[in-house]
Amino acid sequence: LGRRINNAVSEVTRSNVVDQSVVDTMLKEISNALMEADVDIKLVIQLRKKLKGKIEAEEEKPGVNKKKIIQKAVFDELCDLVDVKEAEVFKPKKKQTNVIMFVGLQGAGKTTTCTKLAVYYQRRGFKVGMVCADTFRAGAFDQLKQNATKARIPYFGSYTESDPVKVAHEGVEKFKKEKFEIIIVDTSGRHRQEEELFKEMVEIGEAVKPNQTIMVLDASIGQAAEAQARAFKESSNFGAIILTKMDGHAKGGGAISAVAASKTPIVFIGTGEHIHDLESFTAKQFVSKLLGIGDIQGLMEHVKTLNLDQNDSIKNFQEGKFTLRDLQSQMNNILKMGPLSKIAQMLPGGIGDMMNQVGEEETSKRFKRMICIMDSMTKTELDSDGSLFIDEPSRIIRVARGSGTSVTEVEAVLLQRNMFARMAQTTKNMQQNMPPGMGKN
Ligand code: GDP
Ligand code: MG
């Protein structure tokens, strides 16, 4: 989907004359691509009308760059499609029980994501417990137990009870009695018969009365996403989606149809197998990835032309590696490059968005805080990919104290490194896929 839309737009941006027929062809191509991906036809028609209107309105103005307008309009409208504004955002309340139930097919990433979300809330001061209501898959409880133990989250499950409704109910009641604030219920994603799975979701839902139900969706399943979302919406009326495996090759095109079909927002994306690989969803970042925007090559060129603090980080970057020390020296470089606004748009990890929202001065202040946080790290920590912070969370607390910042801010640094590392990996892959002599210096 992403590729087709992208092709359609670049077709226009390639042709020298952007006349009505070129625009019409592009709109048709985009619509076809969306419809083929099973996006609701009414939505597609709406989108096409909006795009046309926008492009025409802009055309009236003198001296505007049509290609830019078209790109921006497509971008904005796609953002609108995945941004479910009317949906209410679930905010768990402290000092009361919030039950969160997970649904989704086997392999989607439920159990992994349960733990990630538990850690996310635990870090924010909630008392969190996890319940394993997957009695179908052998080893399901062991997997949850292992994850929970690693993250130090209390858990509940049974090796002997085969009724998932019973286990779910028991676990939630137990944690409720113990005044847990967030109880996360993991469920099974497969059954002897599909019908039974959905029936089971209804029954567990009735037994645990979730305040929030989250559907976990694998970003790489493409067009199947819509049917899955519909089926689970009917049986469990989930109120949020978490899109997993966004670190892989999938750009998550299918998720647009899932969001459209279920009118439910994506709240987080999963970006790896570790417990901290969970990021807030932002429509802009998602659509950027979908359309393959993010001028990696351009950024590299720019960086190369500057006479900067050149340690091994550029080389590392091109080899697909990226340590915390690399992040620190890159942030220092970026501050030196000025004007920040130009470079920020090319960076991953929502730095461009931060720039747009809080302005250059605040962004550079935040950069400096991040650099300062990395100053409080040990040599070993700086030269690592940050995973030792995940293995030993006490390190995070130590660095937060040492730098006079907070755990959240230290986590943000780790996430930032992850995003740069991903970009490094992408760059490496791109270069490997290029014909000899291209892309490399
Ligand atoms: P479940 O059957 O829905 O409970 O799925 P699991 O949580 O067992 O996950 C299935 C597989 O996907 C495991 O190997 C996970 O490590 C992996 N996985 C889950 N989320 C992500 C993610 O965001 N990125 C990557 N790369 N792998 C993930
Ligand atoms: Mg599971």
UniProtKB/TrEMBL annotation:
Keywords: Cytoplasm, Endoplasmic reticulum, GTP-binding, Hydrolase, Nucleotide-binding, Ribonucleoprotein, RNA-binding, Signal recognition particle. GO terms for biological process: SRP-dependent cotranslational protein targeting to membrane, translocation. GO terms for molecular function: 7S RNA binding; endoplasmic reticulum signal peptide binding; GTP binding; GTPase activity. Its main location: cytoplasm. It catalyses: GTP + H2O = GDP + phosphate + H(+). GO terms for cellular component: cytosol; endoplasmic reticulum; signal recognition particle, endoplasmic reticulum targeting. It is found in: Cytoplasm; Endoplasmic reticulum. Residues 265-278 form the SRP54-type proteins GTP-binding domain. Transmembrane segments: none annotated. It comes from the Eukaryota. Signal-recognition-particle (SRP) assembly has a crucial role in targeting secretory proteins to the rough endoplasmic reticulum (ER) membrane. SRP is required for the cotranslational protein translocation for ER import and preferentially recognizes strongly hydrophobic signal sequences. It is involved in targeting the nascent chain-ribosome (RNC) complex to the ER and is proposed to participate in the arrest of nascent chain elongation during membrane targeting. SRP54 binds to the signal sequence of presecretory protein when they emerge from the ribosomes. Belongs to the GTP-binding SRP family. SRP54 subfamily. Fungal signal recognition particle consists of a 7S RNA molecule (scR1) and at least six protein subunits: srp72, srp68, srp54, sec65, srp21 and srp14. The M domain binds the 7SL RNA and the signal sequence of presecretory proteins. The NG domain, also named G domain, is a special guanosine triphosphatase (GTPase) domain, which binds GTP and forms a guanosine 5'-triphosphate (GTP)-dependent complex with a homologous NG domain in the SRP receptor subunit srp101. The two NG domains undergo cooperative rearrangements upon their assembly, which culminate in the reciprocal activation of the GTPase activity of one another. SRP receptor compaction upon binding with cargo-loaded SRP and GTPase rearrangement drive SRP-mediated cotranslational protein translocation into the ER. This is Signal recognition particle 54 kDa protein. It comes from Pichia membranifaciens NRRL Y-2026.
